[in-house]
Design goal:
The chain contains ten helices and no strands. The protein is mainly alpha-helical and 224 residues long. Helix 2 runs parallel beside helix 5, helix 4 runs parallel beside helix 6 and helix 7 packs parallel to helix 10. The protein is globular and about 50 Å long. The relative contact order is 0.15. The C terminus is likely disordered.
Length: 224
């Protein structure tokens, strides 16, 4: 990978800027999910984790970008955090009153976990903190991206991908590919692994849309 990294060095700024722009653009794909929620009038059937967890993960990626001293990653995640906060607020507004306690629990656990990891950065040995912190957020990112796959048995049973955020998954795949290339240029194994795994998980989810429609399968009435 080192040889490839050296050959791509002249394109570092272009790829980094492009990846940052695509990341910000990808953040707006959440508008499609928000519009579906608006039309339905409720968040029933939608998980807050992509938005709530997205806020926490964006903060951690922002911290990682600062540790690396990489302006492209830092700027992209600053904008991403602002957009994620707007989405989380929108989700809360459409969450039924009786279910808001669950939403706030997720916010509380996410905030606690995020603060704990930020505290870890402050006390860890500076010579190893970048790599170790990179490993931690790689695992967290995979958990967040793979979260929709938890409902895979239900998707197969219903033969429908209704509820899966297609726009977010598709744009996430494109963004993952751009950061994967940037990681190769940086010769940073954690950035490469993060985005290679992200693209793989997103690809699996995209495959579900090729197999099942995004609308509920019609119910077959039994004959008397």
């Amino acid at each position: 990978m080192e040889a490839l990294s050296e050959s791509l060095q002249p394109y570092k700024e272009i790829v980094g800027t492009g990846a940052a722009v695509l990341t910000v653009g990808q953040m707006f794909s959440g508008c499609f999910v928000c519009n579906d929620i608006r039309k339905k009038g409720t968040t029933d059937g939608f998980s807050p984790m992509p938005f709530v967890g997205g806020c926490g993960l964006t903060i951690l990626f922002l911290q990682h970008g600062m540790l690396m001293g990489d302006s492209a990653m830092t700027n992209a995640n600053m904008v991403g955090l602002a957009i994620s906060l707007v989405y989380a607020t929108f989700f809360l507004l459409y969450t039924p009153t009786g279910e808001r306690a669950s939403f706030w629990r997720q916010v509380g656990w996410t905030a606690l976990f995020t603060i704990t990891l930020l505290g870890y950065v402050k006390i860890e040995n500076p010579s190893v903190v970048e790599d170790r912190f990179g490993m931690i957020i790689t695992v967290l990112m995979l958990c967040l991206i793979g979260q929709p796959l938890i409902g895979l048995p239900d998707i197969i049973r219903r033969k429908s991908t209704e509820g899966l955020p297609f726009a977010m998954i598709l744009s996430g795949t494109i963004v993952g590919l751009s950061w994967l290339l940037y990681g190769v240029i940086l010769n940073n194994v954690f950035v490469v692994l993060q985005n290679l795994a992200a693209v793989t998980l997103s690809g699996i989810q995209l495959a579900l849309f090729a197999i099942y429609p995004s609308t509920s399968a019609p119910t077959v009435k039994k004959r008397d």
